[in-house]
């Protein structure tokens, strides 16, 4: 179990930006999804999106928020995301669609999981921003959107 006390910083802080960017390129950022109703809690146990069990404790004047960095070192970071994870489900048509979609998802460092032949992208922003990056694949019909963000 990873015991986390306090908030290290904000993911938008310039001081942490470069470290987080480096970790993101090495797929080493874990997100701790916290329901909005629980953001005000001072003690919390939850699993990151990678399955790491975390015990979070905060001082009285601290509160969790979307983008709070709870842990960072040279190998990984734990960042709070408010609410439930949102996903975009994409379905490649044939080998060409699968290869092109897989290449772009990797190149763009998207966080993904597979369900059968579908690629489920964990959204870190608006779904439209993601579909815009693969617009040629969607326009050609070799990839289709089969599920919007939940």
Task: Provide structural commentary.
The chain is 25% helix and 36% strand. It has 150 residues and is α+β, with helices and mostly antiparallel strands. The chain folds into 2 domains: 2-82, HSP40/DNAj peptide-binding domain, CATH 2.60.260.20; 87-147, Alpha-Beta Plaits. Strand 6 (68-72) and strand 7 (77-82) form a beta hairpin.
Please outline what is shown here.
This protein is an alpha+beta fold and about 150 residues long. The protein contains four helices and eleven strands, in the order ββαββββββαββααβ.
Task: Describe the structure using short key phrases.
single chain, 150 residues, alpha+beta, HSP40/DNAj peptide-binding domain, Alpha-Beta Plaits, 2 domains, four-stranded mixed β-sheet, four-stranded antiparallel β-sheet, 4 helices, 11 strands, elongated
**CATH level 1 name of the largest domain:** Mainly Beta
Kindly estimate the percentage of residues that lie in beta strands according to DSSP.
35-45%
What is the straight-line distance between the termini? 29 Å
Total number of helices: 4
- What is the helix content? 25-40%
List the helices and strands and how they pair.
Elements: E1 2-5, E2 9-10, H1 14-25, E3 29-34, E4 43-47, E5 53-57, E6 68-72, E7 77-82, E8 87-92, H2 94-107, E9 111-115, E10 118-122, H3 127-133, H4 135-139, E11 143-147
Parallel strand pairs: 1-5, 3-7
Antiparallel strand pairs: 2-6, 4-5, 6-7, 8-10, 8-11, 9-10
């Amino acid at each position: 179990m990873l015991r986390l006390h306090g908030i290290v910083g904000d993911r938008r802080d310039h001081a942490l930006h470069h470290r987080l960017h480096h970790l993101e390129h090495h797929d080493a950022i874990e997100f701790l999804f916290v329901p909005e109703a629980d953001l005000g809690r001072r003690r919390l146990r939850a699993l990151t999106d990678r399955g790491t069990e975390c015990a979070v404790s905060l001082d009285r004047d601290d509160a969790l928020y979307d983008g709070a960095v709870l842990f960072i070192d040279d190998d990984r970071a734990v960042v709070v995301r408010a609410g439930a994870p949102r996903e975009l489900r994409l379905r490649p048509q044939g080998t060409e669609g699968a290869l092109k979609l897989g290449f772009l998802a990797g190149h763009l460092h998207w966080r993904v999981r597979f369900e059968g032949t579908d690629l489920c992208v964990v959204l870190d922003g608006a779904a439209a921003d993601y579909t815009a990056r693969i617009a040629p694949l969607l326009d050609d019909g070799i990839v289709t959107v089969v599920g919007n963000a939940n």
